[in-house]
């Protein structure tokens, strides 16, 4: 028996050692594969430089062999062909002047500010549960569904709801909705003007986006009135365009800056929770109640050359994708009435799949603009092989981590962030800003990508030359993206939304 036990022990030890060796070999192969790909990327990226290096000593040797007679011959050639040289120089000068005059003016992000609500508007889980029960509006089944969604949402205990929704019963009046919008927009704008020292009268373009609240006078008019903006301001108010409307607003402001020289453009992105809260029992319309929270951002853009020195970022690309021609995509986020006449926003069960398809369409357009040539060659090669040789081969998913240093993915919910992480093959650190923004502020709609950028800045992670990708989804269905390039090492602006709490993050979020 003892001998048998010893033999079993030796076999077990051998098995463990063999398993350990196998794991080490797999890890080594993985690391080698990673190094091979990295080496390939650098080789392709710097291929032209590698090929030109041997030419340098050849040119230097030829130059060393030249004497005074050779120089004299060159001077004579230039003297007798002076007309050709003048014509060529004139053509080059004309071409350079035409290019400089017709190229789009660079658009700089001078600064931005996110609204931080006061502490008394916080809606921790316990308070949300207690108030939902005390309203007497929801039955047990509805309450159980809401609490289950909230537990899996990824939201923390420090998110905010507007004043009217803290009342029992809630008071979603027009006056309360106006008050919420004013506090959010004016709070963000006050901080922005204080941080940039820009006079509101210098702003020539104003773009405001808010999906579900569209009062008369408009939100943009409320800002014009509050800050006494000039009479000839180009003012726009975007409504009903969902959580991706912030990117659309930036795109509109960019186009206007290309046609109006030496001016500032002000973009305000917000959403109104007071008017969008649903008080019925339809489950697909209850989900937004659990995810959306109060928030907003104000962004100052400029096309002035002098603002390059103090600006934070330069706008590199805007890519917009609209899938509204597809009926499923069109209806997956839909404002409607339930059977009792209560108005709310219904979210389809196909939302995540539709978002994934919209993302694929967007990055297919974005990829050639930003990906290094090494990734484009791999994608093209696998595409050709799949079409001509092996139809079963999976398409190559480009490594967007080689194109961007930071990612700000719309914090629409835990499932949305998970899908983005999976589709783009990102690491946990790349979606940290999105998850922490969802935990700290909830889904603040179109402004969420700015809370995420503020998080990355507060962590001191953005250096000069870094590229930032912002992606947002919206009803319709839309997927829009922005690419920014940092003009300097970016420090967090005063009065930022993460001021005083950034050291507590990242936090561990419980599994769904």
Automatic annotation (TrEMBL):
The Beta-ketoacyl-[acyl-carrier-protein] synthase III C-terminal domain, residue ranges: 405-485
Catalytic activity: a very-long-chain acyl-CoA + malonyl-CoA + H(+) = a very-long-chain 3-oxoacyl-CoA + CO2 + CoA
Chief location bin: membrane
Active site: 243, 322, 406, 410, 439, 443
Superkingdom of the source species: Eukaryota
Domain FAE: 99-387
InterPro entries, sorted: 3-ktacl-CoA_syn, ACP_syn_III_C, FAE1_typ3_polyketide_synth, Thiolase-like
Biological pathway: Lipid metabolism; fatty acid biosynthesis
Gene3D superfamilies listed in its UniProt record: 3.40.47.10
Entry's Gene Ontology molecular function annotations: fatty acid elongase activity
SUPFAM superfamilies according to UniProt: Thiolase-like
A Pfam family: ACP_syn_III_C
The enzyme's E.C. designation: 2.3.1.-
Class of the enzyme per the UniProt entry, highest EC level: transferase
GO biological process terms held by the UniProt record: fatty acid biosynthetic process
A Gene Ontology term for the protein's cellular component: membrane
Compartment(s) where it occurs, according to its Swiss-Prot or TrEMBL record: Membrane
PANTHER family linked: 3-KETOACYL-COA SYNTHASE
Similarity comment text for this entry: Belongs to the thiolase-like superfamily. Chalcone/stilbene synthases family.
Name of the protein this chain belongs to: 3-ketoacyl-CoA synthase
Species of origin: Delphinium elatum
